[in-house]
Amino acid sequence: MTEKKKLFVLCVALFCFMAVSAQQRMSVSSPDGKLRFSLKVTSESVSYDIDYRKQPLITNSLLGFSFDSGEFGRNLKAGKVQRKKIDETYKLIVGKTSSVRSRCNEMTVPMQEPSDSGRLINLVVRAFDDGIAFRYEFPEQKAWDSYVMYDERTQFNLQGNPMALLMYLPGYVNTHEGVYSHVRYDKVARKRLIEMPATFEFDNGVAVAITEAAIRDYAGMYLMKEKGGLTGKLSPKLGQEKIKVEIDNFPHRTPWRVISVADRVGGLLET
User: Domain Glycosyl-hydrolase 97 N-terminal, which positions (predicted)?
Assistant: First the structure.
């Protein structure tokens, strides 16, 4: 090998190393190991994947926000990841059973802008045997203690072409009633609001339902199919189309974004 070729190979190897080292990756799996949430933080974006039984369900889905203080989702650095196991039982007031066992593995990832005064948001992810849930937490911090949110940019990019069972809505102000459509994912109408939960059945029988939980001091979320997949759309404040959420003080946290998973559609009812 000539000196020029050696130099070229060395440069390529160095470039690849720098590109990989610039990425931060972390993941959390369900207690039974079948379901995994993987997070990737780069200088350009924050994105996640969800695998079930080592098969991709949701891939390369972006996370981020648009605030009055600017975009949040680029040039971020992930801090020290905190992990814990949760195994608790609580009673239900109504339902098919008197008590429920909640068992999952939790991962909390601090995401902060480069400077010491940069904004900080924690991404909290919980991996259950029957689903993934994640939310954002806004801890107390000196340089940032309130926000006006223009958008939460959470994507759900489903793999393949599953059958979709969903309901279109005419607008954000609605009765939450309508006729459900049962179509292939590639036939889902673009730029139309979709009610949650929305259900998807893959050809191998695996079923996924996308919804939310624990909505408090926050806007309700809908889905919309755009280029690249499904994107969450927050309901705007009445009379203020641009503004979705206003928070005057921290700490604060968003609702859970929930992806339920089962080996069959009927299994979603059993979760």
Answer: 28-270
